């Protein structure tokens, strides 16, 4: 059995054929797709976070709104760039959104990927400490965020407050019990996957990872997952961790599917540089008739190793078509692979 959700980048543009032409379209359609996915029996609605781009940005209003409109489906991010975040304010927002959703948030956080502007986090008011990098800053922000989510008091109360205080040190409110165990780290390498395990975070692995050997993408990703699980056991955590992978998967079941994705099936991975000193390997796109798709996916070792699969969706094609994409996988592919 495997949890299956969708991952949307929330793009909008006025390009011909786009059904998502504004930020309002993107946000409202994201909520509608979460509702539709829940009705179809999907397990998760996840959203990517980018800044200075015509894509989904601040996630918590969206997660709270989707939480108010749904009852069962998990709601998450993949991922929030911690270089841009005030961890205490983020803890307040996350706690509020999680309470609205009834404890269904699954928050993916990370150092983040290359952004639209140079050092965009500087415009948000953040600077790495002397001798530290922006990646160090992201991890420092994450450490504070994780600690605050434990719900322990740390702030000295005012002896003459406007309102009555409970005894002892005060914590950030509202606090949502259990949210600390539903934080994921988006890891690109085996080293960061091991670090995430040591911190007690779940693991998110994307459609691209650091190119660390000459093996196929799915094998390298499966090895990353195994390294994470080994590190988790070594750390002595008591709960079972969760692991997600994301994939572009399209079952070609009708004429429209063939029109959009009939030529998109890729037999090979791609290698390239996403940063000056980081070579990455990009996983293939799967697009085929259901029978062929099932056989192709049987060979994907990383999907087999993960408990959660996130389907990247072409959100600019609209809610109805994206619901069809999700339903096709749930109906025509997942049962044959034992995912349902």
UniProtKB/TrEMBL annotation:
Alphabetized GO MF terms: oxidoreductase activity, acting on paired donors, with incorporation or reduction of molecular oxygen
Top-level taxon: Bacteria
Gene3D superfamilies in UniProt: Luciferase-like domain (3.20.20.30)
CDD domains hit by this protein: Flavin_utilizing_monoxygenases
Domain Luciferase-like, residue spans: 16-257
Entry's Gene Ontology cellular component terms: cytosol
Protein name stated in the entry: LLM class flavin-dependent oxidoreductase
Organism field: Trebonia kvetii
């Amino acid at each position: 059995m495997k949890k299956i959700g969708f991952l949307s980048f929330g793009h909008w543009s006025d390009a011909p054929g786009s059904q998502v032409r504004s930020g309002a379209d993107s946000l409202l359609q994201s909520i509608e797709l979460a509702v539709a996915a829940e009705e179809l029996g999907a397990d998760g609605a996840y959203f990517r976070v980018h800044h200075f781009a015509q894509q989904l940005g601040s996630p918590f209003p969206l997660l709270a709104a989707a939480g108010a409109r749904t009852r069962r489906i998990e709601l998450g991010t993949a991922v929030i760039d911690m270089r841009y975040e005030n961890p205490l304010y983020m803890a307040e927002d996350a706690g509020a959104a999680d309470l609205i959703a009834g404890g269904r948030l699954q928050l993916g956080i990370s150092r983040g990927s290359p952004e639209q502007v140079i050092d965009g986090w500087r415009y948000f008011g953040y600077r790495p400490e002397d001798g530290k990098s922006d990646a160090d800053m992201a991890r420092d922000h994450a450490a504070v965020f994780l600690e605050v989510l434990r719900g322990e008091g740390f702030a000295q109360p005012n002896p003459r407050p406007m309102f009555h205080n409970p005894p002892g040190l005060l914590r950030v409110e509202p606090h949502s019990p259990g949210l600390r165990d539903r934080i994921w780290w988006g890891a690109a390498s085996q080293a960061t996957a091991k670090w995430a395990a040591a911190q007690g975070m779940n693991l998110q692995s994307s459609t691209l990872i650091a190119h660390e050997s000459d093996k196929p993408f799915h094998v390298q990703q499966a090895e990353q997952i195994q390294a994470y699980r080994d590190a988790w056991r070594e750390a002595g955590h008591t709960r079972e961790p969760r692991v997600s992978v994301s994939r572009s998967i399209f079952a070609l079941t009708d004429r429209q599917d063939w029109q959009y994705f009939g030529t998109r099936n890729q037999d090979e991975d791609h290698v390239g540089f996403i940063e000056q000193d980081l070579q990455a390997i990009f996983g293939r796109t799967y697009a085929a008739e259901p029978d062929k798709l099932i056989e192709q996916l049987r060979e994907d070792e990383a999907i087999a190793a993960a408990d959660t699969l996130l389907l990247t969706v072409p959100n600019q094609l609209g809610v109805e078509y994206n619901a069809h994409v999700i339903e096709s996988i749930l109906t025509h592919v997942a049962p044959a692979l034992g995912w349902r």
